[in-house]
Amino acid sequence: xxxxxxxxxxxxxxxxxxxxxxxxxxxxxxxxxxxxxxxxxxxxxxxxxxxxxxxxxxxxxxxxxxxxxxxxxxxxxxxxxxxxxxxxxxxxxxxxxxxxxxxxxxxxxxxxxxxxxxxxxxxxxxxxxxxxxxxxxxxxxxxxxxxxxxxxxxxxxxxxxxxxxxxx
Length: 168
Fold this sequence. Notes:
This protein is α/β, with parallel strands linked by helices. The chain is built from three helices and eight strands.
């Protein structure tokens, strides 16, 4: 027996309008809705073996929005099985005219960042297998992370971000 959890089971988000948010998570991320109560809640999952990975709870249109640098959830991250799947997701976003905040090369992974209708942060990413990582510890804060291991339709966007780091 271990006191360490097996994995993160779900995230519970407050949203202004559950119907609007449910539709966004279905259309943009392709999530399956297991339960839905209009005006109240939606329970959704990418993995159909899980009862839900995200719960959306309606709090009303007049609810205050997220504030920059406020304590709380920065973003939730949805992992793709392959780099090819992430490329397909990127094209899906472009075809649906979904705004992409940024694409980030983290050395061992590549993430696409966006926001749901209520401003909740969402990352969709691919992470290479652990045996391919440049090191096993201190992965993110050192300046020696490798870059350019994830070629794809985002190359021009990444190059633009690298030229203007202050704009992030």
